[in-house]
């Protein structure tokens, strides 16, 4: 059986264009951090390093479990989860990341979620293999982390990243109406479409606050 987050985790990955509450459980991630404008090459290089490792993990798992079905594994293969990013700003700016106009001051941690069946040992084995096959100094910056967001508010934003403030305003109004408070000035973005293959006006991005 192939596990597909698009079909089997709709509550987390299929919000509407109006804010809604969701409870996000503990999840395992490949993570890498950076600073600066996401339109610069350094950001895309970090995304590339993450994907090279994520696909190595996927293919190694598929090769090891193909044909085993439910006898020895919950699934034979899985769809790679979408790219996510937690966005912040440099402390001296004193602004929230989603209202910061100067993108050079952004700080971020981008990540790709891993299924529960993937262990840290599997990650380490795949990382060693990728380093040997396709050496990349950025691979040394990738970490394996468990993150539990808990209670959140999220919304689906369709269109340009620069138009996200309108969706954030909807979220802020929802928080006010529901008497909720953000737990952090950071926010999470989940990119449901491949940024390199999708026209900017057709991008679909989940925006999420922890509350």
UniProtKB/TrEMBL annotation:
Q: Per the database record, which ranges form the GyrI-like small molecule binding domain?
A: 19-207
Q: Which SUPFAM superfamilies match?
A: Probable bacterial effector-binding domain (SSF55136)
Q: Name one Pfam family in it.
A: GyrI-like
Q: Entry's InterPro entries? A: GyrI-like (IPR029442), GyrI-like_CCH_Lin2189-like (IPR008319), Reg_factor_effector_dom_sf (IPR011256)
Q: What is the name of this protein?
A: GyrI-like domain-containing protein
Q: Which organism is it from?
A: Blautia parvula
Organism lineage reads as:
Bacteria, Bacillati, Bacillota, Clostridia, Lachnospirales
């Amino acid at each position: 059986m192939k596990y597909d987050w698009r079909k089997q985790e709709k509550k987390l990955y299929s919000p509407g264009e109006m804010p809604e509450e969701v409870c996000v459980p503990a999840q395992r991630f490949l993570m890498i951090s950076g600073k600066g404008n996401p339109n610069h090459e350094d950001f895309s290089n970090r995304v590339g390093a993450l994907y090279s490792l994520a696909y190595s993990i996927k293919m190694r798992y598929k090769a090891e479990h193909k044909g085993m079905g439910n006898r020895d594994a919950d699934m034979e293969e899985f769809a790679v989860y979408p790219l996510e990013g937690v966005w912040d700003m440099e402390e001296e700016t004193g602004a929230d990341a989603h209202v910061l106009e100067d993108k050079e001051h952004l700080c971020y941690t981008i990540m790709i979620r891993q299924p529960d069946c993937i262990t840290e040992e599997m990650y380490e084995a795949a990382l060693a293999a990728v380093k040997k096959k396709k050496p990349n100094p950025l691979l040394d910056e990738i970490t394996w982390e468990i993150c539990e967001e808990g209670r959140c508010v999220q919304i689906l934003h369709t269109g340009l990243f620069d138009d996200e403030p309108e969706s954030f305003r909807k979220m802020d109004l929802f928080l006010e109406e529901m008497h909720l408070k953000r737990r952090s000035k950071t926010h999470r973005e989940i990119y449901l479409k491949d940024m390199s293959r999708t026209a900017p006006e057709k991008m679909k991005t989940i925006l999420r606050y922890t509350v």
